[in-house]
Amino acid sequence: MSFLDEFSATGAVIIKPKVLNAQAIVNSNAYFGKLFRDRGLDAQALQNWIENSGESDFLEFCVFLGLSPSETRGLLDDIRNLDGTLKNGRWKPALLGFGKIAAPGYGPAKGLQTLSQWRDYAGATRRALLPQAKERAAENNRDALSIDDWFSWAELPEAKGWEILPGPALTDESRFSEYLEGFMAEHDARERNDRASFQRLLTDYIGVSEDGRLREKKERSCLRAVMLGYLKTNEVIRRTGKT
Fold first, then answer.
1. Between vectors from CA 170 to CA 169 and to CA 176, what angle results, nearest 5°?
2. What is the pLDDT of residues 5-52, one digit of tens each?
3. What is the pLDDT of residues 32-45, one digit of tens each?
4. Is 228 helix (H, G, I), strand (E, B) or coil?
5. Which of 184, 232, 207, 142 lies closest to 3, judged by CA?
6. Secondary structure (DSSP) of 137-156
7. CA pair distance 233, 69, nearest whole angstrom
8. Residue 52's CB: how many other CB atoms inside 10 A?
């Protein structure tokens, strides 16, 4: 038995929604048209739902439709892609347009819209290369490089939203303690393994003994030989006595 049967990444906020033809959406012969009609939605009501979903999230809309967030996201994608024209290599929808569907911000992440706000909250995953940073500075008429040039949106992590389907272990109270003990045993075993791996990296390659003393260079191992123990490369390092 599992705690989670399914999980997937999904968003629940429509960025810059624009309902282009609500009446055509509701009257459509596609599956979503029938769904909206079965739920008693007219063109104005549908437009209100979608526009409101751009201000907060569409979780309430999901409940109303009887769909999961990922299913609702797929439905909106289908509406956008069903009808439109291709102009200069870009799709121009005729029914519904939006920038993207993103993860909502809750708690301390709520309302963080600007680059500096999101960077202060989420940090960065990398730094821009010098030529790219200089190009950004020139585009914004800055003589000196700023933090925005080094760490722009491309260097920041995107918000992630997760949808889960609880497994039977979460609802079986009679055996929950047993499941929890098994989960914690696996969790602790992985933690011990991670610590052992890190310790081996420090001692075998970097050359730090457990007492903090630096080892002689001849006592250290080849990094490739150390890391091959964790990689499925089918390679073998043969020691020749040479460095």
1. 65
2. 888 888 888 988 999 999 999 999 999 999 999 999 999 999 999 998
3. 999 999 999 999 99
4. coil
5. 184
6. HHHTT-SS--HHHHS-GGGS
7. 39
8. 15
Pairing outcome for strands 162-166 and 90-93: unpaired
Tokens describing residue 96: 């519904």
Q: Are 228 and 221 in contact (CB under 8 A)?
A: no
Asked if 8 contacts 73 with a C-beta cutoff of 8 angstroms, the reply is no
β-pair partners for 91: 86
105 to 42, 112, 114: CA distances (angstroms) = 30, 8, 13
Q: Is there a contact between 112 and 121 (Cβ–Cβ < 8 Å)?
A: yes
H or E, element range at 8: strand 4-9
- Determine contact, residues 50/17, Cβ cutoff 8 Å: yes
* CA 218/CA 225 separation, integer angstroms: 15
**pTM (2 d.p.):** 0.64
Q: State the Cα–Cα distance between residues 193 and 165, nearest whole angstrom.
A: 29
Gap between the Cα atoms of 148 and 52, Å rounded: 31
